[in-house]
């Protein structure tokens, strides 16, 4: 079957098998390898992308289900060469070690901050509870997201 | 890399469309909503449908509203919507409390009420919620709509009353003024299935318990409930000792299996503790304590 999916603002059309999972469509068909493929059982969240603006696990979504819809991946998070505050926060607060969970963490974090620009620690931990990290124990990840919240507020304040 | 076996994909745009596709493709067709139960089963070859019918475009089944003296929840309502619904929160604490511990936020963004019920996992949370609330499930075919009690909906593990060429379209729950409700769950880690979980509602008139519902999951309780324990409470003053007796009865009458989540005696004890807490909290809420 043929699918047409808007990925990071670009229309992508391809002939696929109905059983192709969205994570493999992104990685293998489009070469967007920023989305990681981890546990394959909807637990780890490394494959988190946005489907119509909502973070979902792309290892448990058929590419066919995204036909006619919009997907955003980690590659689409920065704009015009400027990192998203979430990405910058992970740099500033050493929010990663091996980096495998990082793209999924960032997509979940960005979705949280879009809904709640100033979340407390418990809210952050809840928002990333579907994203598992085996390196840092989450302390630095939570700090990175708090950094992003503080700095985007500062940015918005400066613009206002 | 785990991928499902080969299947044909169809997309439905309306309920009629979905029903027509089910009729056309026969019993080896499966509906897919959120897909968070079906796709993992397809990867493991525990499910191997010939045709997958995508019903995610059925926005007509995505609603939560009051109809008469009932709450009506459309089958395509996502877990995240149930969790955040002010209308449900206004009437029943049990919904948000159960949803908060179902899987994780990302899975809740996709998973649906109807999908959870139709998956009929013996450890599923919403089955216990609707059993506690004595909800009714609406099932449609091309020719008729029928209603099944939530407590008669599960035919067995992973088996429901929904037959070939039928769709679960809606769940209804009676509104009960003067009631309080609660959900209590113990899991090993965030997003996991329950070791055991219990939900309850209690409706009071003065200090008299006029109606009560108990739902239990993951411990082999028949139809996710324990009617004998409900009978102990109904008509009582809902005192601490009556609650304790009813809760202990739930622990005795359920039928848990020993597994990696714990031995049988531990699960029975846990059920008694969780039912006791859910009932106590429900009674407090029925009396106006909204914490």
Automatic annotation (TrEMBL), chain A:
<comment type="pathway">
    <text>Alkaloid degradation; nicotine degradation.</text>
</comment>
<keyword id="KW-0411">Iron-sulfur</keyword>
<keyword id="KW-0408">Iron</keyword>
<dbReference type="GO" id="GO:0051537">
    <property type="term" value="F:2 iron, 2 sulfur cluster binding"/>
</dbReference>
<protein>
    <submittedName>
        <fullName>Carbon monoxide dehydrogenase small chain</fullName>
        <ecNumber>1.2.99.2</ecNumber>
    </submittedName>
</protein>
<dbReference type="InterPro" id="IPR001041">
    <property type="entry name" value="2Fe-2S_ferredoxin-type"/>
</dbReference>
<dbReference type="InterPro" id="IPR036010">
    <property type="entry name" value="2Fe-2S_ferredoxin-like_sf"/>
</dbReference>
<dbReference type="Pfam" id="PF01799">
    <property type="entry name" value="Fer2_2"/>
</dbReference>
<dbReference type="InterPro" id="IPR002888">
    <property type="entry name" value="2Fe-2S-bd"/>
</dbReference>
<feature type="domain" description="2Fe-2S ferredoxin-type">
    <location>
        <begin position="1"/>
        <end position="77"/>
    </location>
</feature>
<keyword id="KW-0001">2Fe-2S</keyword>
<dbReference type="InterPro" id="IPR012675">
    <property type="entry name" value="Beta-grasp_dom_sf"/>
</dbReference>
<keyword id="KW-0479">Metal-binding</keyword>
<dbReference type="GO" id="GO:0016491">
    <property type="term" value="F:oxidoreductase activity"/>
</dbReference>
<keyword id="KW-0560">Oxidoreductase</keyword>
<dbReference type="InterPro" id="IPR036884">
    <property type="entry name" value="2Fe-2S-bd_dom_sf"/>
</dbReference>
<dbReference type="Pfam" id="PF00111">
    <property type="entry name" value="Fer2"/>
</dbReference>
<dbReference type="InterPro" id="IPR051452">
    <property type="entry name" value="Diverse_Oxidoreductases"/>
</dbReference>
<dbReference type="GO" id="GO:0046872">
    <property type="term" value="F:metal ion binding"/>
</dbReference>
From TrEMBL, chain B:
<dbReference type="InterPro" id="IPR036318">
    <property type="entry name" value="FAD-bd_PCMH-like_sf"/>
</dbReference>
<dbReference type="InterPro" id="IPR016167">
    <property type="entry name" value="FAD-bd_PCMH_sub1"/>
</dbReference>
<dbReference type="InterPro" id="IPR051312">
    <property type="entry name" value="Diverse_Substr_Oxidored"/>
</dbReference>
<dbReference type="GO" id="GO:0071949">
    <property type="term" value="F:FAD binding"/>
</dbReference>
<dbReference type="InterPro" id="IPR016166">
    <property type="entry name" value="FAD-bd_PCMH"/>
</dbReference>
<dbReference type="GO" id="GO:0016491">
    <property type="term" value="F:oxidoreductase activity"/>
</dbReference>
<protein>
    <submittedName>
        <fullName>Carbon monoxide dehydrogenase medium chain</fullName>
        <ecNumber>1.2.99.2</ecNumber>
    </submittedName>
</protein>
<keyword id="KW-0560">Oxidoreductase</keyword>
<keyword id="KW-0274">FAD</keyword>
<dbReference type="InterPro" id="IPR005107">
    <property type="entry name" value="CO_DH_flav_C"/>
</dbReference>
<dbReference type="Pfam" id="PF00941">
    <property type="entry name" value="FAD_binding_5"/>
</dbReference>
<dbReference type="InterPro" id="IPR016169">
    <property type="entry name" value="FAD-bd_PCMH_sub2"/>
</dbReference>
<feature type="domain" description="FAD-binding PCMH-type">
    <location>
        <begin position="2"/>
        <end position="178"/>
    </location>
</feature>
<keyword id="KW-0285">Flavoprotein</keyword>
<dbReference type="Pfam" id="PF03450">
    <property type="entry name" value="CO_deh_flav_C"/>
</dbReference>
<dbReference type="InterPro" id="IPR002346">
    <property type="entry name" value="Mopterin_DH_FAD-bd"/>
</dbReference>
<dbReference type="InterPro" id="IPR036683">
    <property type="entry name" value="CO_DH_flav_C_dom_sf"/>
</dbReference>
